[in-house]
Predict the 3D structure of the following.
Amino acid sequence: MSHIPLVTLVVRDYDEAIAFYRDALGFALVEDTDRGDGSRWVVVRPRGAGEGAGLLLARAKDEAQRASVGAQTAGRVGFFLHTEDFAADHARMSAAGVRFLEEPRHETYGSVAVFEDLYGNRWDLLQPA
C-alpha cells in the first residue's frame, strides 16, 4: 500500500519552526538530525499520528525559497489538522498565540476554523462530524 509519509514545508529558521509546531500546535519533534552541511533533517508530526503524514521542515536556502515561505499554497488552506476535541484544541492553540482567521464554524462535515502558522500558511483545524 502506498502512502505519503512527509510533506516539505519551507521555513525561515529551523528552531523557530520547531518551537511553533511543538509548543503552539502540540506536535511531536520526531527527528532533528544535523546533516553536516549547515542543513538539518527536521520532522514534526501531530501527537498520536503514529506513522501518519508529518512535516519535513526545510530551511529556505536562497531568495526564491525565502520568497515562498508562508505562501506555499498561494493563500489557500493547504494543511488540515484533524482533532478529536475541537473546543479543547482551539482553546489551547488560541492561548498559545495561534492566530485564527475566523470564529469556529459548525458545518455538515464538522467543526472547523482557519488559522495561520507562524509564516502565514493557512490551515484548517477540523473535527470531522
User: Anything to note?
Assistant: The helical segments are 14-24, 63-68, 86-95. The first strand starts at residue 6 and ends at 11. The mean pLDDT is 94. Residues 14-24 form the longest helix (11 residues).
